[in-house]
Amino acid sequence: MTPNNTSITEWLQSTAQLLGFDGIGFTPIQSPPATIGYYDQWLANNYYGSMHYLQRGRNRRFNPRTILPGAQSFISVAMSYSIPIPPPHYRSDPTRGQIALYAHRRDYHDTMLPRLKELSRIMDQNFGTKSKAYVDTGSILERAIAVQAGIGFFGKNNCLIVPGQGSYFLLGEIITTANLASTSISDPNSENRCGACHLCLDRCPTQAFPSPHVLDARKCISYLSTLDKESIPVKLRPLMKNWIFKCDECQLCCPFNSAVQAANENFETDDRYSPLLLDLVEMSPTDFHDRFRDTPVELAGFEIILRNVAIALTNWGSSEAREALKLLSTDTSEMVADYARWGLQFLSNRQ
After folding, report:
1. Minimal CA–CA distance to 175: which of 298, 292, 50, 29?
2. Most exposed residue of 43, 118, 204, 268, measured as fewest CB within 10 angstroms of its CB?
C-alpha cells in the first residue's frame, strides 16, 4: 500500500537529517514558474556573460516535466558550509590569496550528490515514485525552488538566506512524481526581509549589482575568477584584490551572517586555503593537484588559478610581487604569461 503524502514528507524530513542535510522543503512544480519574467529580463540584458548554457537551458528550467515526465514536486535540500571565519586583517593580507569559504572543504558535488541520490533511490523504492537528483548540474532554478519550498528568502545579493542561520548554504534538488504538500511559508515576493540594508550592494568591489536582486555576472569576481572564458576587462582586474578563487565579499558583510561568522581570534593559518601568493608561483601542476585535491579549487584548473595569482600579485604591487610576476611572464601558458606582463606594465605605469 502506498503511504499517504504526510508519511512521505515525514519520512523525507527525518531521512534527510540522517543523511546530513540541514534543511529540506517541498514545493509543487509550476510551469512556467513565477520567476520567468525576471529570468528572461536577465538574459535579455546579457548579464550571463559567457555562460551560454543558461540561455540554452531556458525551456528545461521553466518546464521541469521535460526532464521527468509526470513530475509533480520539487524536493529542495540545504547543507551548511559554515566554518570559522578568518579575521579581517587576515583576509585582507595582500601577500595571501583569498579562496571562497565554500571551497575550504571537499567538493560539494562529491559530498551532496551521492547522499541526494541515495535519498531519491530509497524514496522511489519505498513509495513507488520516480525521481531525479541534481546538485548544481541540471537545468534547475535551485535558489528560486528553495525559496518556494520555504527554506529561506532571497537577499539583495541574490544569495539564499536561511532565517537565523545566514547564507552559507549549498543547495540540491530532487524532481519527483510524488505529490508532496508544500512547505512554503508565504509568497517569496511578498516582503523584503532585508529592509533598508544594502551593505552587500555597496561592498561589492566591482559594483556587480545594477539593482537589488540583480547580478551582472560579467562584473562578479566569482564569475571573473573561474567562469570567464574571455579576457578579464583590464579595468576590473585591480578591483579583484587578492581573490584567486570566487568571492565572499557580499556575504561577509551581511548582517544575517553575523551570528555565524564572528572573527575567530584563534584562527590557525592554513596555507591550503589562504595560500601565500609567492608559494603558488612556485607550484607545478602536480603541486597544485596535491594541494587542492578534491576541492572546488582543483576544478578551476592550474592555469586559471595562476592567472588569478598574477592579478593578485599586481594588486599587491611590492618588489617581491614584481619579481614573481617576472617569473610568471615566462610561463609556458600564454594566458598566464600575458597577465603577468600586463601586471608588470600596470605597476610600471603606476610608478
Report:
1. 29
2. 268
Can you tell me the distance from the alpha carbon of 293 to that of 103, in angstroms, rounded to the nearest whole number? 11
pLDDT digits (tens), the chain, 351 positions: 345 565 899 999 999 999 999 999 999 998 767 788 899 999 999 999 999 888 887 888 888 888 899 999 999 999 998 777 777 777 889 999 999 999 988 888 899 999 999 999 999 999 999 999 999 887 888 999 999 999 999 999 999 999 889 999 999 999 999 999 999 876 545 457 899 999 999 999 999 999 999 999 999 999 999 998 789 999 999 999 999 999 999 999 999 998 775 544 444 555 667 899 999 999 999 999 999 999 999 999 999 999 999 999 999 999 999 999 999 999 999 999 999 999 999 999 987
Q: What is the dihedral of CA 104, 107, 112, 114, to 10 degrees?
A: -150
Q: How crowded is the C-beta side of 258, counted as CA atoms within 13 Å?
A: 5
C-alpha gyration radius of the chain: 22
Residue 115 and residue 150 in contact, taking contact as beta carbons nearer than 8 Å? no
Instruction: Give dist(CA 194, CA 6) in Å, integer.
Output: 33
Residue keyed to cell 607545478: 284
**What residues are annotated to the active site?**
136
β strands within the chain, DSSP E: 23-28, 73-80, 98-99, 131-134, 153-154, 160-161, 169-176, 243-245
Cα separation, 247 vs 234, whole angstroms: 18
The residues pairing with 263 across neighbouring beta strands, listed in sequence order, are 85
Whole-angstrom CA distances from 12 to 79, 121, 123, 219, 257 are 15, 12, 8, 39, 28
Q: Say what the pTM is.
A: 0.92
CA-to-CA dists, residue 348 to 77, 238, 301, 314, 345, angstroms: 50, 14, 29, 10, 5
* Cell numbers found for residue 18: 540522517
List the beta bridge partners of residue 78. 23, 171
